[in-house]
Design brief:
This protein has 195 residues and is of the alpha/beta class. The chain is built from ten helices and six strands. The longest helix is centred in the C-terminal third of the chain and has 14 residues. It starts with a helix and ends with a strand.
């Protein structure tokens, strides 16, 4: 477990700190749902099809290209404001305890959530995908302050949660269920499959 944690953080003492902190939390018979935003709740396929400059700037470069060119407000208005998207996963999220856990440029992700009227949900934005694992632990320990019976994670890129599932279950004392999500644009889902 310590080796797994070292891949996430150089602070190897933190796992013991978390384990001591979790002892003081009560268990509640509640399932917590965690969902990614991009390609889990909202598909970016249309953007990539219509905006050729985005196809050439995938990954970390493309939101920066939008920001650098001052296109953010026009981009948000065109692709996020009042747009229809599937609600299958969103309908599973309670605004009380559940979480949208997404990664990327913080201000850009917040702007997208606001444009989609999703900023009323609990959300955390991390700089990278691997940071989501630590963010989940901190959310349970410091925000919820209770141990759920189960955490269900909905992700289009679930590899970090799969890789660290045993560590998460060891620290949080609960079952982690991981659902792989494949969207069909913003029309629906091709797959939501337990892995």
């Amino acid at each position: 477990m310590q080796n797994k944690l070292k891949q996430l953080t150089p602070n190897s003492w933190i796992i013991n700190y978390w384990k001591e902190a979790i002892i003081n939390l009560k268990t509640k018979d509640i399932n917590i749902n965690i969902a990614d935003f991009d390609y889990t709740i909202f598909s970016r396929d249309e953007q990539l099809e219509k905006e050729k400059y985005l196809a050439n700037n995938r990954g970390d470069l493309w939101p920066q290209s939008i920001l650098d060119n001052g296109w953010i407000n026009a981009f948000l208005k065109k692709y996020y404001n009042n747009r229809r998207f599937p609600t299958n996963i969103l309908n599973k999220l309670s605004k009380e305890n559940d979480l949208i856990l997404t990664a990327w440029i913080h201000e850009f992700q917040v702007a997208k959530l606001i444009a989609c009227w999703l900023d009323t949900y609990n959300y955390i934005i991390t700089p990278s995908w691997e940071d989501k694992v630590i963010a989940l632990v901190r959310y349970i320990l410091y925000t919820l302050k209770f141990i759920p019976t189960q955490i269900t994670v909905y992700e289009d890129r679930p590899e970090y949660f799969v890789e660290y599932r045993d560590l998460l279950e060891d620290i949080l004392w609960c079952k982690i269920e991981i659902m792989y999500v494949e969207m069909d644009g913003n029309d629906g889902y091709k797959k939501i499959v337990k892995i």
